[in-house]
Amino acid sequence: MRAQAMTVAAAPRLRLQGAWVLPPLLLLTAVFFYPLALIVAQSVTTANGLSDLGSYARVLSGPLFANALLHTVEIALGATAGCVVLGFGIALVLTFVPFPGARTLSRLIDTFIALPTFLIALALTFIYGSAGIANISLMRLTGASQPPIDFLYTVAGVILAEVTVYTPFIMRPLLAAFSLIETAQIEVASSLGAGAWRIIRQVILPPALPALLAGGSLCLLLTVNEFGIVFFIGAKGVITLPLLVYGKAIQEDDYTAACVIAVVNIALSLSLYLLYRVLVARVDQGSRSA
Q: One digit per residue, pLDDT tens: the chain, 290 residues?
């Protein structure tokens, strides 16, 4: 009887707690689920207002979409790899190779997070663009009639800009993870004859792997959906999925095709996020079993 009375008394409390779920659920519905539903609905709607899945076959089978998908994956993987290598190296030096001004440098790199991405693209254009400082200086020195540096308007230039912007997203969680590693472990490993690479591989990397995966997955998601850098650099022939959505919707007024590509882009982003969750779960499981 007492247990039954406690259950009855707890029922209103549970209903009250459940009511707090409604405001964030309504907010998510208004700002995310409803617009997403409109995009999906538009992707299967013809110009006559009829439902037709043929738009997917028409858009996805075209060479323009295949080219955009290839560039999106190529740039995202290249930029993420660059961010991982550069961010890991910088975080390693700032944490374990102290030097005067290390903290100031760390904060300076952090400021890139607050900057709009197109500003980095603009800065690189001022330096490496056709009329940038480097090209003008080299043309004056060599007498060349054409700019000798032209990588900025290629896939490599877009990757360089994205690495510059998104490296702090790798570096910041790694700095937090490295700060938890006891220097005594490194000193013991060094006294036992372990070299620098072995210390990094066996002492530093394992506890920092979750932070590396978290930062890397965030970089991958951001670079897959990056629009401002690709648009502002204006790399010739380099079209990504977000840029193709813009072109179809704004320049061609083909909203159905734009929504089809947007749905594919969303599916790609969600797939990468699920892959990240699986990898993190396996790393956590492996660290617990070890």
A: 444 544 544 555 555 566 677 777 777 777 777 787 888 888 887 666 666 777 888 888 889 999 999 999 999 999 999 999 999 999 998 888 877 877 777 777 777 777 777 888 888 888 888 888 888 888 888 888 788 888 888 899 899 999 988 998 898 889 888 888 888 888 788 887 777 888 888 888 888 888 888 888 889 999 999 998 888 887 778 899 999 999 988 888 888 888 999 999 999 888 888 887 787 777 667 666 65
- Domain topology for 72-239: MetI-like fold (1.10.3720)
Q: What angle do CA 53, 54, 60 make, to 5 degrees?
A: 100
Distance CA 239, CA 143 (A): 33
By the 8 A CB rule, do 254 and 55 touch? no
Domains of the chain by residue range: 72-239
Residue 51 pairs in a beta bridge with 45
* Whole-structure pTM value: 0.81
DSSP secondary structure code for residue 146 in this structure: S
